[in-house]
Design brief:
mainly alpha; binds tryptophan; three-stranded parallel beta sheet
């Protein structure tokens, strides 16, 4: 059996970028009889964003309901909360002890924060940067390496983290002359980054996302905000550089994409292109939204499913951790 594993950080609302990068490909893969899937909610990772108790819980339930609405079958998939697996945190420490500090210095998220401090003219470049953010890739490596997946479905923005997990796994195997850790590969659905409303990558940290299950009015308003160039009506429009088209193509059929390309060549107006995208997203998520609304109002039911999932994976996690500790000499 091939194994896949992926998680979504429990901050803010799940957005189209999460859906296309992680949720859609993982759910599709998880349906195969030849694949065993580990899909989880990274709630401990959310602490790096200093979320409140209620923000954290709301996000956990929203993500849980989203996975279920998008077709995750809990009979077949291991579905759990990161914070319910204490073995992860023990492995995290072990991995910290073989991770070179220089490797973490190169992490994009840490570098971005440092650059922000430079721009702000701060003397201390590490001002307001916490160890949780700095060590984020090590906890993520523990999430992955504890379950030895072959592939990790992620969006483009997580590729560096995956490379770090491979690097750390390799270092451990080399240091302890073992092949305990499987070097994970990223599963990239599509090389293009899902872009947000402003044209930067769609990310909760940039506040430019389109959440998945918005009510129609809000979705419509957000779509109207998508940045476009100022080319006039009837002028031929370029699909590649257009955000509306980039999002549309994640959800439309090949035929629909072709039709849209023709409309662009004929000089479709931005207002009309946005209408088409709006209706596409509405119809794509209609049924899923109903299932989502059901589960999001059933936190107890979600807790139960997640606990059951955690119990199942902990059997494997604790036996593997024992093997790892044996190698270390404990
Ligand atoms: N870093 C991922 C995100 O920002 C979440 C995540 C945590 C993850 N651990 C993981 C993804 C392990 C894949 C594998 O959404």
């Amino acid at each position: 059996m091939k194994k896949i594993l992926t998680g979504i950080k429990a901050t803010g609302q799940v957005h189209l970028g999460n859906y296309l990068g992680a949720i859609k490909p993982s759910v599709e893969l998880s349906k195969s009889d030849k694949i065993s899937s580990y899909l989880f909610i990274a709630d401990s990772h959310a602490l790096t964003s200093h979320v409140s108790f209620s923000q954290l819980n709301q996000s956990v339930y929203e993500i849980g309901a989203t996975w279920l609405a998008c077709g995750l079958n809990t009979e077949k998939v291991f579905f759990y909360r990161q914070s319910d697996i204490p073995e992860l945190f023990e492995l995290y420490w072990i991995l910290s002890c073989i991770t070179p500090k220089g490797l973490m210095n190169r992490a994009h998220s840490y570098k971005d924060r440092k650059e922000k401090n430079i721009k702000l003219g701060k003397k201390d470049l590490d001002d307001k940067i916490y160890m949780g953010l700095y060590n984020y890739p090590i906890l993520m490596s523990a999430d992955i390496l504890l379950f030895s997946p072959d592939e990790v479905p992620v969006g483009q923005d997580q590729i560096q983290h995956l490379e770090m997990a491979r690097d750390i796994a390799g270092k451990f195997n080399h240091r302890y002359k073992t092949d305990l850790f499987v070097l994970p590969k990223a599963f990239l659905r599509d090389k293009s980054v899902v872009l947000g409303l402003d044209g930067q990558k769609m990310s909760k940290s940039y506040n430019n996302t389109i959440p998945l299950f918005l009510d129609s009015n809000k979705l419509y308003k957000l779509i109207r905000k998508i940045k476009t160039d100022s080319s006039s009506l009837q002028k031929k429009k370029d699909t590649n550089s257009c955000l509306i088209f980039q999002i549309y193509k994640g959800f439309a059929s090949l035929e629909e994409i072709d039709t849209m390309k023709k409309l662009y060549a004929e000089g479709i107006g931005w207002g009309e292109a946005k209408e088409i995208l709006f209706h596409k997203l509405e119809s794509y998520f209609k049924e899923k939204k109903e299932i989502y609304n059901f589960y999001v109002s059933q936190p107890k039911q979600l807790d139960k499913l997640l606990k059951q999932g955690a119990e199942k994976v902990r059997v494997e996690a604790s036996s593997f951790l024992k093997e790892i500790k044996k190698v270390l000499g404990f």
